[in-house]
Amino acid sequence: MKAISLIVLVLLSALVLVSGLASVTEDVELKQCRDLCRDQKQFDEKQQHVCIQRCEDYAREKKEWGGRGESAETDPERRVRECKHQCEQHKRYGEQEREVCRSQCEKEFREGGGRGKKYYYDVEEEGEEQEVFGEGGEREENPYVFRDEHFLKKAESQHGRVDVLQRFTERSELLKGIENFRIGFLEADPQTFISPAHFDADGVLFVAQGRGTFTMIRENRGRTTTSSRSEIKRHSFNIETGDVIRVHAGTPVYVVNKHESQKLVIIKFIRPVNTPGAFEAFHGPGGDNPESFFRAFSPELLEAAFKVDRESLQRIFQQKEGTIIKASQEQIRALTHGEEGGGIWPFGGESSGPFNLFHRRPTHKNNYGQLFEADPNEFEQLDDLDLMVSFANITRGGMAGPFYNSKATKIAYVVDGEGYFEMACPHVSSTRKQGRRGQSTGSSRGSRQGTTYGQVKSRLKRGTVFVVPAGHPVATVASTNNNLQVVCFEVNARDNFKFQLAGKNNVMSKMESQALELGFGVPAREVEQIFRNQNEEFFFPGPEMQRQRRRGHSAV
Amino acid sequence: MKAISLIVLVLLSALVLVSGLASVTEDVELKQCRDLCRDQKQFDEKQQHVCIQRCEDYAREKKEWGGRGESAETDPERRVRECKHQCEQHKRYGEQEREVCRSQCEKEFREGGGRGKKYYYDVEEEGEEQEVFGEGGEREENPYVFRDEHFLKKAESQHGRVDVLQRFTERSELLKGIENFRIGFLEADPQTFISPAHFDADGVLFVAQGRGTFTMIRENRGRTTTSSRSEIKRHSFNIETGDVIRVHAGTPVYVVNKHESQKLVIIKFIRPVNTPGAFEAFHGPGGDNPESFFRAFSPELLEAAFKVDRESLQRIFQQKEGTIIKASQEQIRALTHGEEGGGIWPFGGESSGPFNLFHRRPTHKNNYGQLFEADPNEFEQLDDLDLMVSFANITRGGMAGPFYNSKATKIAYVVDGEGYFEMACPHVSSTRKQGRRGQSTGSSRGSRQGTTYGQVKSRLKRGTVFVVPAGHPVATVASTNNNLQVVCFEVNARDNFKFQLAGKNNVMSKMESQALELGFGVPAREVEQIFRNQNEEFFFPGPEMQRQRRRGHSAV
Amino acid sequence: MKAISLIVLVLLSALVLVSGLASVTEDVELKQCRDLCRDQKQFDEKQQHVCIQRCEDYAREKKEWGGRGESAETDPERRVRECKHQCEQHKRYGEQEREVCRSQCEKEFREGGGRGKKYYYDVEEEGEEQEVFGEGGEREENPYVFRDEHFLKKAESQHGRVDVLQRFTERSELLKGIENFRIGFLEADPQTFISPAHFDADGVLFVAQGRGTFTMIRENRGRTTTSSRSEIKRHSFNIETGDVIRVHAGTPVYVVNKHESQKLVIIKFIRPVNTPGAFEAFHGPGGDNPESFFRAFSPELLEAAFKVDRESLQRIFQQKEGTIIKASQEQIRALTHGEEGGGIWPFGGESSGPFNLFHRRPTHKNNYGQLFEADPNEFEQLDDLDLMVSFANITRGGMAGPFYNSKATKIAYVVDGEGYFEMACPHVSSTRKQGRRGQSTGSSRGSRQGTTYGQVKSRLKRGTVFVVPAGHPVATVASTNNNLQVVCFEVNARDNFKFQLAGKNNVMSKMESQALELGFGVPAREVEQIFRNQNEEFFFPGPEMQRQRRRGHSAV
Hints:
The structure is a homotrimer.
Chain A: H1 2-21, H2 26-39, H3 45-64, H4 76-89, H5 95-111, H6 128-133, E1 145-146, E2 151-157, E3 160-165, H7 168-171, E4 182-188, E5 192-199, E6 201-209, E7 211-219, E8 232-240, E9 243-247, E10 253-257, E11 264-272, E12 281-282, H8 299-306, H9 310-316, E13 324-326, H10 329-335, E14 355-356, E15 364-366, E16 369-374, H11 380-383, E17 387-394, E18 398-405, E19 409-416, E20 419-425, E21 454-460, E22 465-468, E23 474-478, E24 484-491, E25 498-500, H12 513-520, H13 524-531, E26 539-541, H14 543-555
Antiparallel strand pairs in A: 1-22, 2-3, 3-4, 4-11, 5-10, 5-12, 5-13, 6-9, 6-11, 7-8, 7-10, 9-14, 15-16, 16-17, 17-24, 18-23, 18-25, 18-26, 19-22, 19-24, 20-21, 20-23
Helix pairs in contact in A: 1-2, 1-3, 1-5, 1-14, 2-3, 4-5, 12-13
C-alpha cells in the first residue's frame, strides 16, 4: 500500500510538471493528462480514478486563473533529455551536482521558470490542507512572508522584467535589523541584452536559471592605490545556474542571456550604500525609459565634457527599447566571446569572479535533502557584506530542521517547488487550534511574565520570500510532489552557527541527564528517548512521508 | 577627634550591615544594635548616644518600609569568618584580591545580597544631605539614572528572578547611542538550577556574588569552517564572584547555583542581534511558563522530526517549575563535576572560558579605591563587542575622578554600597543653587552661543544603573559607611582613554603655563597651584572625609 | 577676439579681488577700480567702458549688501609678493605645490579669507546667467546644497567665530546615510589663542588658510595597554595651509594663530561618538561663556578633588574673554616653540601628526585643474573613520567631471572661488526647460516604471557646502574669473573608485561596440565618436571657455 501510494504521488508530480508547461491548449493538455493516468499499468481502478480527477481539477483551476501560458518553440521532452545528458558530461560535477543539474533541466525546459507563474497545486489528499494550515492558512499578522504582491516593478518590457521586494520595514518594525537589505528578481527572455547600468548599492547575484555572459567595468584593484589613479577594464564572465556573483556598488554591469530558448533568472541580494534600504539604477545608455542620466546635465556642460556639438549628443540618448533588449545572433556571439583581457572567465584567469554554489561539497546531504553553503570566511567577496549564501534542495516529502541560526538572519527565496515552513516566534500572537495559552502582546514591555511562542506558518511556492531571524527555531517542509529549492541570503553571518534541534547532533542530546531532568521536569530517560530517536541529521522524512510510511506499515 | 570620628563611622557601618540582615524580629534587632553601641568601650557618652540614636532611626525606617526580611539559616558571623579565612588561603590572590574577597564575604554572608533590598541609610550628620543633594535630591530631567522601577520582570519564581532594564531610548533620545544595549539582572536561590535557554542576543555576564557552574552548548569554533559542518559540545565552567563570561548569541546555556546558602547574582550586558534593543529568551525545555518553543510547531512536524509519537512528545513539554528550579544535592553534584571534555574549566584546559576581573592587577589602586579593567584589546571575547568591563571599588569616604572617557560610554551598575555621582552635562538644564546662568535649552539648535553645563547628580545604592556618555566629566563618591562597588560596561571601548581632571597626571597639568594663563584668564601660577596640589591619582579622599580631616586638624 | 576676451576676464577678476578687500571707502575703491580700467593700454574704448561699468555695478552691489569691510593694516600687494617669494623658496615643493601656494598668497593677503564674505560677482556676459541657471537659479527642493543660513553659531567673539552646519537630516531624509557627520568652520584673527577644549566627537581638520600651532594632550598609545594605565603628554604641531589633522574624540586641543596679519581658517569634519549627529564642546578653562565644566561640580567635591579651598577655585573659573582670545607676542612665542618632547613637529619626530595634502602628488593634473587625495588606505589616521580627504583646484573656466564615486558620499566645502555644479539625481523632480519627462515622485514605491533623473544645479561660492551621494554623476565648473577650490570629505571611502563618464578612461569607452549599439540603440560608431573625442582626463575646459574658444575660432 505504501509503495503504491508513493508511485501515485510521483506520477502526479510528473503530470503536474509536464502538463503545467506543455505548449498545448487546455483540452489537449487535459487529454494528455488523462491518457497518462490510464497508461499507468500499476494503477488499480480507484487509483486511476483519483489520477484522472486530479487532471480535471488542475485543468479547471488553470482555466480560472487565466493561465499565463507561453508558447514553447520546441519539444520540451527532447530538450530535457539533451540537458540531462550534458549534466552527465560535466567533468567537474560529483553526483550531488548532477542531481541539481538534472533537476534544473526539468525546471528550465519543462516549466519555463520564473516568478510570473502563479499556480500552486496541492497533491495532498482532501481535508489535509485544512489541518495543516489551521483555520484559513497563514495568519495576517505574520510579517515574515512576502509574495508577488509585495514586489515592486522596477522595469518591465516585452522581453523581461526587474522586480524589487518592498522594504522590510514597510512590513514590520520587527524587521528593523535587516532594513538596509533588499531582494531583487530579474527575468530576461532568451537572446536578450540587459542594458548597462550601475547602482548605488552592493549586490550579490544568484543565477537561479539560465546561461549567459556577465560583464562588469571595474578598476584593477591594487593594494593601496588612491581611488582615481588606477585604470578601469572590462571583465566578462560566463555564468550558469548556481553561480554567485558579487557586484560592488557603482560598478557598471550588463548581461547577455545567450541561451536560445531558456530564460535567465537572477535573484539579487542588495545592500544600498547611500540611504538605508533605498537604491536606484543609473543608466548611461538610455532614452526616456530608462532615461540616460546624461540627460540630467545641461547641453552646454555635455558639449564641453565630450568636446562635441549638442546635435550629436541628442542623437545618442533616444533609446526606445527599454532595459532588456532583443539581440541578434551576431551581437550575442560578439558579446559572449570576450575581447579584452584574454577571454572570458574562467579561461581568462580572473580570481575574483563568480563561484558556483553547486560545485561545493554539501554541508549536509542525505536522502531527504542537500545543503550547499558559501561562507563569508571562505569567500572574500562575501566577507565585507558579512553574508552567507546557501542553497537548500529539500527532496519531495522531506523536511529541513527544526534548527536555528545563532546570529544570522536568513532571507530565503523559493527558487522552485512547493511546501511550507513553521517557525517559533516570541513576537507574534498565536491562534493555533492546539493553543493552550493567552495572547502574547507582541511587545516586551510591562509586567509580562515569561515568554510564549507564536507559530508562524506559511505556504511556500516559487517566488515566495521568507525571513527567519536569528535564534528563531524553524523547519521547512517540501511538498510531496516536488523538491523544494530555496536560495538563502544569511546576513550577519560571520561566526554564525546552525544549532540543530532534532536528529543527530541536536542541542538537547548534549546536555547531562540531570539538566534534562530538571529542565523538562520528567525523568531524563523519557527526554533522552525523544531526542535520541532520530538518526538522520538536518534533513528528515517530512510529516506526510512519515504518515504514508506508517500507513504503509499498518497496511502490511 | 578625627580618629574617634572615624571609629564611630566604622562602627555604625558595621551595625547597619549586621542589623540590616539579621534574621530577627525588629525588636530583637534594635536591642542588639543598642547593645553593640554600649559595648564599644572607646565611645564616650555622647558617642554612645549618637550610636543608639542611629539604631532607633534605622529600626523606625525599616518598619515604615515594610522590611523585606529574609530568614538566615545560620550564624552570619561564623560564615563571614570562615569565608575570610578562605580568602587568605587562596594561593593566586595578591593583597588587593584578598581585600575584594573579604569584602565579598561581608556582603554575601551578612547581607544576603540582591537588588531586592531597598534601604538606603545615610550616616552623614543631619542637615548634610540637604546641602549635598540640593532641593530634594536628583532632578527629574536626569535621564542618566535608572532604579528598581525602571526594570522589567522577565521571569520570577519562588527561587529567583530575572529582570531587564527598560530600553535606554525609552527614557531619552540622549541615549540613542546605546539604544542597542540592555542590562539584565539575575538572582537565584542557593541550590537551584536555571533552565536551559538561548537568546537572540550576545551577552557578557559578570558574577557579582556567588559560586556555581555555568554550562554552554557550543560548536568547536575552527578556522574557516562552514556554519553547519562542525560539531557541538558541552562546555562547563566553575564560576565565582568577579568572573566575566562571554556568551555568544544563540548559545544554549544553563547555570547551577551550587552554594548551600548564598544567592547567585549575575549582572548581564546584552546586545541583541535581531532588532535593535529587543531580545527574547528561547526555552527548549518548558511547559506553559516558560513555554517550550517546541510547542509552537505542529504535532505532525515534531513527530516527523523526532520520529516519535505525539503522546510521548506532549508528556515532556509540561514543565511546571518555571525557569529557576530547586535542585537536589545529587543533581547539583552531578551537574557541577563535569562529564564531557575532561572536567570543568579551569581544569579542563578551556581557553575561551570566563576570566576573573579581580585576578588582574588593578590599573589604579591607593587607599581610596581600586580599579580593575578588562580591555577589549586584551580579551578576545570582548573584542567584537568593543566592550570594556571594569570594576571600581571605592573605599568608604573615598571618591573616583573627576575624569572622562575619551570615546566610550559607561553603563554602570552599583553592586554594593551607597554614595552619589556628579556629572557635567551640556544637555540638561541646571538648577543648582550656586547656578549663575540661565536654562540651557537642551538642544544644540538655534543661535545659542557657547555651551553651559548642567549638573547631573544622583544617589547611588545597590541596584542603581547610571550612564556616563563619552567626554562627560564625572566623579563618584562613596558614602562614609560602606565601600561603593560598581561594575561598569564601557561600550565603544577600543582605543578609549580615561582623561583625568584632578590629581597626578591631570590634563591641565600638561599644558604650558601660557596656555593656562590665556585659557583661565588669571596668572598661570594660580592655576598651577590648583591643578598640582593633589598628589593622589584617580581615587581621592572624598568631600566628607576631607571635612572630617579638616575638623580633626582644627580640633588638634 | 578670443585673446582679448580672456584678458578682460582676467583683469576684471583681479579688480574684483583687489577692490573687494581694499581698506578704503567705497568711493575711493570705485575710483581705483575705474583708474585700473583706464590704465589697461590693451583695452579699446568699448572694453574700457565695459570694465568701468563692472566697477560701478560692483560698487552698487556692495553698498546694497551692507559691505562687511575690514581694515587691512598693511599694503596687501607687498605682502602677496613676499608670500609668493616664500613659495619659490620652499624646498619640498614641486611646481604644483608652488601654484597652490601662490594662489593661497593671493587669497590670504588680498582677500582676508573667511566664510563671512557674502559677495558673489559674476563676470559672465549679460543674459548668460539666465541660461546657465534656468528659471531663477537652483530649485527649492534641492536638499544637497547648504549656504551661510544653514550654519549655526557655536561661538563668536570679537576675535573669531566657530560655526557648525545643521544636521544633514534636518534638511532631508535623503541624507540619512550621512546623518552622523557634521561640518564645522573656525576662523580666528591673527595673534589669537583658541582656548583648550575637548569634544565628544572625532574630528578631521583641514587648514584652509593660515599658519599656527596646534596642541593636543594625548596618551602615548601603546600596543594593548588598558585605558587608564598609560601616561598623557602634550603634542604640538606647526600647521600651515593644506594640513590635515586627525583629532580623536575626547582629546583636549588648543590652537595658536601665530601669524601677524592673516586669519586662521579651519574646516572641520566631525563624527560624534555619543548621539548620532550631536556633539558638544567641553571647556575646562572658562567662565560664563564658555562655561567651565568644572563649575557643574559641587564646590565640596572640587575642594576634595583638588585639595584646595573653594575660594581659590572660584577665582580661576571667571574667564571673561570667550573661546578665541587675543594673545601677546610673548605668549605666542612661548606657545609656538614647544617645551615638551623635543620641539614641535615635524622636528620632534612625531609620526601620527598632521600631513599636508598639497605635498602629495596630484592624482589628476592638467591645465584645467588638479586633484589631491589622501586615501584611508594610506593614512592610518583616516582609516577608522573610513574617510578620504581631497582637494580639487579647478582652473578658472575649467570643469571637473562628469564622474561618480562608486561607494563614497562626498561632502564638499568651497574654500575659494565661484562656479556651479550639476548632478543627476533620481530622487528630485526635474523642472529643466529641456525636460521631456513627467515628475518623478521622489519615492521608490508604487508601480513606477523605470527611473528618471532630475538635475540638481547650484551656484558655488566660498563657504557653500554641497553633498554628492555615491553613484550620482556630477560635474563641477569653475567661473571664468577665479579658480574654484574645494575641499572634500568623502565618507564610506574604503575601496571607493571614481568612475569617469567623459574624457580618457571613461566607462563607455571600455564597452564592446555591440554593447554600445544595443544600449544606445544607434550604430556603435556614432556612440564611439562621442565617447572618444575628449582627450583630457578628469579636468576639462568648461562650457564658457569652450564657447569662447569657438568664438575665437570663428572670429579668426
